Amino acid sequence: MDKTPTRDTGSSRERTRAALIETGLRLFGQYGFDATSTRMIAAEAKANIGSIAYHFGGKEGLRDACAQHIVGMVQGVATPLLAAAATAAKDRDAATALLHRVLDRMIRFIVADPQAGLVVQFVLREMTLPTPALDIVYAGVFEPVHRTLCELWAGATGAEPESEATRIDVFTMIGQVVYFRVGREAVLRRMEWQAIGPEEASAIVAAARRNLDAAIAARRKDRP
Amino acid sequence: MDKTPTRDTGSSRERTRAALIETGLRLFGQYGFDATSTRMIAAEAKANIGSIAYHFGGKEGLRDACAQHIVGMVQGVATPLLAAAATAAKDRDAATALLHRVLDRMIRFIVADPQAGLVVQFVLREMTLPTPALDIVYAGVFEPVHRTLCELWAGATGAEPESEATRIDVFTMIGQVVYFRVGREAVLRRMEWQAIGPEEASAIVAAARRNLDAAIAARRKDRP
DNA sequence: GACATAAAATCAAACGTTTGATTAAATTGG
DNA sequence: CCAATTTAATCAAACGTTTGATTTTATGTC
Q: Within the 77-136 window of chain B, which residues sit less than 8 Å (CB to CB) from chain A?
């Protein structure tokens, strides 16, 4: 079937690499980079310790590979949305509607999706102590996503896309979402939730949606 | 002068303990618990390595002591505000005004105060992997502060203080603030700021204030 | 008040364990 | 058979903790 007898997804090499990246992403996100030992990763990935050095040059190389993996993942799901934004940004109602859709997706992704939760945790940990891995994620995810959201925000409110106020406004909208992941432990206790699943995410979406509408309306007033 | 020749604040015991807690707080917050070695702490605190085990029973004991220290600090500055909330919550305008004041203080504290930044970082790190230290901070800071903000929120909007919607709404207001600390690195790059100082904090305050007013107004509409 | 005793705190050194990395040999697949 | 990959063994360095000796501070006795 394939030109190459060992497809990328099936070769021993790629299977080992994928297992290490996947496990590294999970453990780095779960326990942090320093608290995760290479032995732990190798054991859970059913690979040898030496594999990490062989394939990635070392523990830090694996972290970079994890960051690259995240960029690929997010781009896969975000690209269609970002593409739609280019045209939607020209129309107020379309921009507002798309903002709602993106916010809805983001919340359920960041807050409730267990698979994505590990990705978010990984990135948040990188954020507190920047490494080359953060550069990769910032350039590949943060910057393009935030920029697009600014365009939508500008389309919905009439503000300038790259003005300081717009960029800050978009950060506040993102922030109110991210906190439910960052402060998850405090949220769970205060809300008396056992977990943040689909139902809880819906309650969060409802609140964020009200905030979004209110914020847009307040900005819109100034510019008729 | 003193009844006791060695006062608590001056005794060798208390000086050593205080130095270790202060340094521990800073380094744990800066690098994380696992990435901070006891040797690092002892060296920076100008104390002996054995002192940590002697005074706190070990590295984890020092972390608990740091958490307790945070509770004492925050209670010192927050108590007056929380007391004022009890009466302000009865009046819509007073509640709204106090919410504004608290939000203003919180933002400048969380986002720009370098001293407090270490405290915030320490807590955020604990949040991602709960330890007994988090229990201490949650019970001593998070729960009482969030509960009080809910009362104010209810006073300003007319909602029920302990309803699910109110508790979530308050979390979204906190979240839009905290993100500027959590995602500081991304914010700095995207905003092209060198640091988040008083001026940058003011810009954030302005955005958060608009969001707060808009959110309250939107909720108020429903209940005349 | 001076001296002797007890208690508390500090210190440098060493403990056993675990860390990430490296090596050379064994295994695998084309 | 050869190159790529995996494996097990080994390395020095760093980890948190423990130790016994020493110094500092507090208490008791006359």
A: 121, 124-125, 127-130, 134
